[in-house]
Design goal:
The structure holds 2 protein chains of 2 kinds. Chain A is mainly alpha-helical. Chain A is about 80% helix and about 0% strand. The longest helix of chain A has about 35 residues. Chain A is globular. The termini of chain A are far apart. Chain B is α+β, with helices and mostly antiparallel strands. Chain B has 2 domains: about 100 residues, Beta-grasp domain (Ubiquitin-like (UB roll), Roll), CATH 3.10.20; about 130 residues, Orthogonal Bundle (Fumarate Reductase Iron-sulfur Protein, Chain B, domain 2), CATH 1.10.1060. Chain B has 9 helices and 7 strands, in the order ββαβββββαααααααα. In chain B, strands 2-1-5-3-4 form a 5-stranded mixed beta sheet. A two-stranded antiparallel ribbon of chain B has the order 6-7. In chain B, a hairpin with a 2-residue loop joins β6 and β7. Chain B is elongated, with a radius of gyration of 21 Å. Classes of the chains: A mainly alpha, B alpha+beta. At the A-B interface, α1, α6, α8 and α9 of A face β5, α5, α8 and α9 of B. The structure holds protoporphyrin IX containing FE (HEM) (2 copies), iron/sulfur cluster and FE2/S2 (inorganic) cluster. Iron/sulfur cluster binds next to α4 and α6 of chain B.
Chain lengths: ~270, ~240
């Protein structure tokens, strides 16, 4: 009997959870970014939604699947690219973080609709808003650096190597978007947990989504979710059509990028008008 | 017309770090990158190291990274090149011995991990061997495999693969492609043996389906197709 490898387990896990996430994550995004502006999702909004058992189960399924999928992906990245003590330590950290976030998020949905607006020190909100600003600053700096490196290469006419090939971009963006969504999700589970336990603090955090400095990151996040979902679907489709995959992979990548950009327009309008 | 060849040179044994060195080369009709390297060797710099053998795109010895993309130096021509500067680097993810010469050891170690040879029926004493090759021409496996057995073991796909660059356990495109080709041989007796490697830590599920391998392969092999076929069906 053959022993199943970690690589095989993760491969199936990421595809099964990814397929389930397509519907959940896109519906969530539609509610929060198209039907409403992110800054209009205060404690009262959550209370109204969580009054329905359906949305609580929905949010819980999204929570567990997104955390298992996202941290599972991170576990895979650590396993393939690191060796030795550092790798073992990081893997243990990933498993622990998954458990902590699942517990915190589950406690929040279980507690359900927030009571009247009371309690909650707004200093927690300050910390969370600070984390969002730090995440935004990090992504802006990373984007600027990547563009600078690429521009320098092109200007000095040194080859950009593997980045000449579309598949390389599809993969690079898939990994980048996956890790970025996971980083946001970690902060997000904290801030949503404030809604039942400290509604005033929650409202203060949600107000932070209105800060203009954060708007580019919010749009990038929507783009990341859209692209990562579409490209995940693309990978699964190509897997089902192995003999046509080489011909289809580049056009389908272009399609994923085009659809992402098109879908970003209404999201930008909602933020701008909301 | 002259062209500038920028060559990534290094000599790890003598502690020389990689650096670009420029050479001006007079273009001749139908000149290949390998021809240009010879011109440098003979007329400008006798210390330039590179590897070649057949000069006909058949042996795979001269694979290197030309203008950022893996290819065979003996097959890459300057004709029609848009740029007057061409960059030449050694293959990636393999230890550089000197200049454009890499150690192919890690490439063949991966190859060996999947038992890259045909394993036939155990001959029994006193029995004349039967017909060794009964493959029905209409079996339908041949069209898929015939393209995948053209590998010349040049190492281009290994160099182009970002997963190989990160994951030292990953067997890589060429080895997994070879495993698939053998899997399709109904006479082979080592399918079960190979499954250990094919679905192990460095096997087909470690691949992220980037597809650079198929884009750079000078022999027209599509290693990702083989990897996907192995993910869909385990060899019996
Ligand atoms: C900036 C964009 C987003 C906004 C404004 C937003 C807003 C909200 C709100 C208001 C809730 C409270 C529950 C509800 O009303 O249904 C919630 C819950 C949740 N969101 Fe988001 N969301 C955003 C993006 C995301 C993304 C990208 C993910 C990742 C997959 C995500 C995952 C979740 C999960 C798992 C919950 C449930 C949390 C828990 O049970 O503790 N959200 N979100
Ligand atoms: C919405 C639907 C989604 C689909 C269809 C999807 C699909 C996939 C697939 C197929 C992979 C494997 C890629 C590979 O083998 O290289 C993957 C990896 C990954 N996903 Fe998702 N995913 C989705 C949502 C998410 C979300 C919400 C997160 C963040 C919480 C996330 C984070 C990651 C990470 C970190 C990886 C590992 C990236 C890598 O190894 O390069 N994904 N996803
Ligand atoms: S599959 Fe193609 S690129 Fe890879 S070693 Fe064989 S011939 Fe070279
Ligand atoms: S020298 Fe043999 S392939 Fe180029």
């Amino acid at each position: 009997m053959r022993r199943s490898s970690l690589a095989s387990w993760l491969w199936y896990l990421l595809r099964i959870s990814g397929a389930a996430l397509v519907a959940l994550a896109l519906v969530h995004l539609a509610m929060m970014h198209y039907a409403h502006a992110p800054s209009a999702t205060g404690a009262a909004f959550v209370a109204a939604r969580w009054a329905h058992a359906f949305w609580r189960w929905f949010d819980w399924a999204l929570l567990v699947l997104a955390l298992v999928h996202g941290f599972g992906g991170l576990y895979g990245i650590v396993s393939e690219s690191m060796r030795g003590v550092a790798a073992r330590l990081l893997r243990a950290l990933v498993v622990a973080a998954t458990a902590v976030f699942v517990a915190l998020g589950s406690a929040a949905v279980a507690a359900g609709a927030p009571a009247a607006h009371s309690g909650g020190s707004t200093s927690i909100a300050g910390v969370l808003a600070g984390l969002l600003i730090a995440l935004a600053t990090l992504s802006y700096l990373a984007a600027a650096l990547a563009i600078a490196v690429l521009a320098l290469r092109v200007a000095r006419r040194t080859p950009i190597g593997r980045w000449e090939i579309p598949g390389q971009w599809a993969w690079g963006l898939h990994r980048l978007s996956g890790v970025a969504i996971l980083a946001f999700l970690a902060i997000h589970v904290f801030d949503v947990a404030l809604a039942p336990f400290a509604p005033a603090a929650y409202d203060a955090t949600v107000a932070a989504y209105g800060i203009p400095y954060l708007v580019p990151m919010e749009l990038a996040l929507v783009g990341a979710v859209l692209y990562h979902s579409l490209n995940g679907l693309r990978l699964m489709l190509l897997e089902a059509l192995p003999q046509r995959a080489q011909r289809l992979e580049a056009p389908l990548f272009a399609l994923a990028i085009a659809l992402t950009l098109i879908a970003l327009v209404p999201a930008a309008l909602v933020i701008a008008l909301g | 017309m002259t062209i500038t060849l920028r060559v990534r040179r290094s000599d790890p044994a003598r502690g020389e770090r990689p650096a670009w060195r420029s050479y001006r080369v007079e273009l001749r009709p139908k000149m290949s990158v390998l021809d240009a390297l010879f011109a440098i060797l003979e007329e400008q710099d006798a210390t330039l190291a590179f590897r070649y053998s057949c000069r006909a795109g058949m042996c795979g010895s001269c694979a290197m990274v030309i203008d950022g993309r893996e290819g065979l130096a003996c097959q890459a021509r300057f004709e029609g090149a848009r740029r007057s500067v061409v960059h030449v680097e050694p293959l990636r993810s393999l230890p550089v011995l000197r200049d454009l010469v890499v150690d192919m050891g890690p490439f063949f170690a991966r190859y060996r991990a999947i038992d890259p040879f045909f394993v036939g029926e155990e001959p029994s004493l006193g029995q004349p061997p039967g017909d060794p090759a009964v493959v029905d021409p209409d079996a339908g496996v041949r069209p898929l495999v015939s393209r995948q057995i053209d590998c010349i073991a040049c190492g281009a796909c290994l160099s182009a693969c970002p997963t190989v660059a990160m994951n030292d356990a990953f067997l890589g495109p060429a080895a997994l492609n070879r495993a698939f080709a053998l899997t399709n041989d109904a006479r082979d007796r080592a399918h079960r043996l190979r499954r250990e490697a094919i679905y192990g830590e460095g096997g087909v599920h470690a691949c992220h389906s980037v597809g650079n391998c198929a884009r750079v392969c000078p022999a027209g092999v599509d290693p990702l197709l083989s990897i996907r076929m192995l993910r869909a069906h385990a060899p019996e």
